[in-house]
């Protein structure tokens, strides 16, 4: 329930999921960059999370044009190197200057059987490479209907943050993404989002300390668009959004980044 502090700069991250080849990625980032102004970057951290195959192209564009756009990866291996066919290590992502790596997205948990233990190992691998993990947590519809969302999310949080010390948790981003709101057009009400995000911050204060808890950015994700972002951002413990579908439309994503101009 802590008031937003200047140390919590909002973060709007566009998770493109399995969309956009490297050429489409360049076109999309160029369109975003054309629309974004210095003041947007001053107010909000703006990140794109493309598929692995497009990260190098995004990096080249960001470097060449000195864009303020940050970028990251949708996943990261828990292993440092070796015989793990198909995996991408945190050090490889660090070499591409990724700022973020999403870990524990519900689609990874659901389709790739990722457990809290694996998610935790991935988060620690990212942190060891100086990459901020975006640790995703969120309940399914059955849990929500039974009123168990807070307990469910806090258990995922405890598991995901195991063995991560306070100095590293401050660089970690938590994304609350209720599974029933992802890609469904169904958004949690701002009050629903605040309830769980506040519980996450309270737990962070218990696991670490109030100062660390105040610094951690907590994002909401699930059918975020220009029409609902302002009300979500008006909540005390919501510090940004992890945006799926709407981040594929540069106009809509820029609108989300400029949520301050939108009516609540
Ligand atoms: O899963 C999400 C972001 O990681 C949310 O996706 P949508 O914004 O498409 O619902």
From TrEMBL:
One of its GO terms (cellular component) is cytosol. It comes from the Bacteria. GO terms for biological process: gluconeogenesis; glyceraldehyde-3-phosphate biosynthetic process; glycerol catabolic process; glycolytic process. Keywords: Cytoplasm, Gluconeogenesis, Glycolysis, Isomerase. It catalyses: D-glyceraldehyde 3-phosphate = dihydroxyacetone phosphate. The keyword Ligase does not apply. Substrate binds at residues 15-17, 183, 223, 244-245. The active site is at 105 (electrophile), 177 (proton acceptor). GO terms for molecular function: triose-phosphate isomerase activity. Its EC number is 5.3.1.1. Belongs to the triosephosphate isomerase family. This is Triosephosphate isomerase. The lineage of its organism: Bacteria, Bacillati, Actinomycetota, Actinomycetes, Streptosporangiales.
């Amino acid at each position: 329930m802590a008031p937003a502090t200047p140390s919590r700069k909002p973060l709007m991250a566009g998770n493109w999921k399995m969309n956009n080849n490297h050429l489409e990625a360049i076109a999309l980032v160029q369109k975003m960059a054309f629309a974004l102004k210095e003041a947007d970057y001053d107010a909000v951290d703006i990140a794109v999370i493309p598929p692995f195959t497009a990260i190098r192209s995004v990096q080249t564009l960001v470097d060449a044009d000195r864009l303020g756009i940050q970028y990251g990866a949708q996943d990261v291996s828990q292993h440092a190197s070796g015989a793990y066919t198909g995996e991408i290590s945190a050090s490889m992502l660090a070499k591409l200057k990724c700022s973020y790596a999403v870990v524990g997205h519900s689609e990874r948990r659901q389709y790739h059987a990722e457990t809290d233990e694996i998610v935790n190992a991935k988060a620690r691998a990212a942190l060891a490479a100086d990459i901020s993990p975006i640790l995703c947590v969120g309940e399914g519809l059955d849990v929500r209907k039974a009123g168990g969302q807070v307990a469910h999310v806090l258990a995922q949080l405890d598991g995901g943050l195991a063995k991560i010390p306070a100095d590293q948790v401050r660089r970690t981003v938590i994304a609350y993404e209720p599974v029933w709101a992802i890609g469904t057009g169904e958004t949690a009400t701002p009050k629903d989002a605040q309830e769980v995000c506040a519980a996450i911050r309270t737990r962070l204060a218990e696991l670490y300390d109030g100062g660390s808890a105040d610094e951690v950015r907590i994002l909401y994700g699930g059918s975020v668009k220009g029409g609902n972002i302002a009300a979500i951002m008006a909540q005390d413990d919501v510090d940004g959004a992890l945006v799926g579908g709407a981040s594929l439309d540069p106009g809509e994503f820029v609108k989300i980044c400029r949520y301050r101009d939108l009516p609540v």
